[in-house]
Amino acid sequence: MVNSFPCNSYLCSAHTVIIQEKILLNKLRLKIKKTGSYRYSKKYLKMINDASVYDVSINSPTTHATSLSLKEGNEIYLKREDLQPIFSFKSRGAFNKISNLSNDKKSRGIIAASAGNHAQGVALACKKLKIKCVIVMPVTAPENKLNAVKRLGAKIIMHGENLGDALAYADKINKKHNYTFVHPFDDPFTIAGQGTVGREILEDGIDYDAVFVPVGGGGLLAGISAWIRQNKKKIKIIGVEVDDSACLTEALIQNKRVYLKKVGLFADGVAVSQVGKNNLDVIKECVDEVMTVNIDEVCAAVKDIFEDTRVLSEPSGAVALAGLKSYSRRMKNKNLLAVSSGANVNFQKLGFIVERSEIGENREKILSIKIPEEPGSFLKIAKVFGKLSVTEFNYRKSDNKDAFVLVGIRTKSEESFSKLKQKLKKLKYKFNDYTNNNISNDHLRHMVGGRVTSGGAADIKERIFNGEFPEKPGALVNFLEKFGTKWNISLFHYRNIGSAYGNILIGIEDNKKDKSILIKHLDKCGTIFKEESNNKAYLDFLK
């Protein structure tokens, strides 16, 4: 499917981008038509070759993912940056940047901003080189990464809710104290340090057809692609982003660096609002495609890495493999490599990862089925599933006539799921597939309560909204104070998934004729909401 853009868009520029395929909702695959020029990237060949990284980093091994290869029908390899001393590739770029500073700049001390992995890389480099180090970290930084930075001896300043806030504050401190600032990705020496990963990939002796690289700010992708494209032109280089933080994708579509107002923080290592300038210049020249994946696919990739390596990847570390798997379905008998970029997993996320990996692998299906409210109906519907594995069974009485059940089913294939749906239709059951329904996956499966059934319920005009809440003390009180008392909250469900933000489902009674008034009010409360009043999961189980 090719989408059209106005003639002043990126499609009409020298570096043409084509939306080659819309894979799923909010998922894109962008093909970059390169000019053939290496105006920006040619300098990196010498810089990468001269890069100083191995005082703090290893030449990471490449692991053949045996189980996944058999499953996918391609030979799949993992570049194991999760085995670095700080369990992330970030030590390469940080050390190369800092070691190349002048003595004067080193003597001033280093300041950086990071939610975790870059912070560890900078702290490790400064410890090795005996340089004073200050790191600004957002208050939402994962505790395991915060503790790792502390152990490396850096001074930590907690400020802001995201990386953007931390960067701005670091800049403010820098101007006051005249430190030397080390950017997490938008710097030539940082790019060159990360580019040593690309050099090692070509040195491992395997003839790869495609290499998949995770994208946050684009430093790793720029470095790897600069080396591989200029040394081995036939290898496809594909950047992979999470769909809720796809700053590179947006930059390519609009032909300019775009600042995303909101990024998802589940894969915190790639949760970046704007791609780096130096990085984008190289990417336009050297990268073949950029694609997006969703959180469920990332969770499934975490599971795949564990099954083949027994290492627990952090979500951002599995992003490249998630893209590889999606891409792999279109080819057979190819050599494909994904950079496993980090293993600094937040332990609190594991439950969510396990839960959603089944959906990401397309193994668990979620159905809402309408059944008669009468004795024996449970048994009757259970028998329909036969020998299929039922993962959960949730019931909410609708009225005296009908009931809805929310059923989780583990299927072996799309074919077996299709047969189940055909069977349900034959037996005259009405049902909906909620496998990719965000309200069902994030809220409904974990809620208690149900419909509004008290007096006057028919007159209640409830609107339902889905959003995110920062995981920090006082967040709920702060929201409620801003929300005020003009509207009544009829439903509220908050669920943290082990990240900096938790998912909210809120019901609000709104009898005003102008529906935009409530929307404008919510916008002023500091939390971004999406209205879901017509979501079938809400209509079936909660309204």
Summarize it:
By secondary structure, this protein is α/β, with parallel strands linked by helices. The protein contains 20 helices and 20 strands.
Question: Could you characterize what this model shows?
Answer:
The chain has 543 residues and is of the alpha/beta class. The protein folds into 4 domains: 10-78 and 192-349, Rossmann fold, CATH 3.40.50.1100; 90-181, Rossmann fold (3-Layer(aba) Sandwich), CATH 3.40.50; 362-436, 2-Layer Sandwich (VC0802-like); 446-541, 2-Layer Sandwich (Alpha-Beta Plaits), CATH 3.30.70. The chain has 20 helices and 20 strands. The protein has helices spanning 44-50, 66-72, 90-99, 103-107, 117-129, 143-151, 163-177, 188-203, 219-231, 247-254, 277-286, 295-309, 319-328, 350-360, 377-384, 414-426, 438-442, 475-483, 516-523, 536-541, and strands at residues 16-22, 28-33, 62-64, 75-80, 110-113, 133-137, 155-158, 180-181, 210-214, 236-242, 289-293, 335-340, 364-372, 389-397, 402-410, 430-433, 462-470, 488-496, 501-509, 529-531. An 8-stranded mixed β-sheet has the order 1-2-11-10-9-12-4-3, with helices on both faces. A 4-stranded parallel β-sheet has the order 7-6-5-8, sandwiched between helices. Helix 9 (219-231) links the parallel strand 9 (210-214) and strand 10 (236-242). Helix 8 (188-203) packs across helix 9 (219-231) and helix 12 (295-309) crosses helix 13. The radius of gyration is 25 Å and the shape is globular.
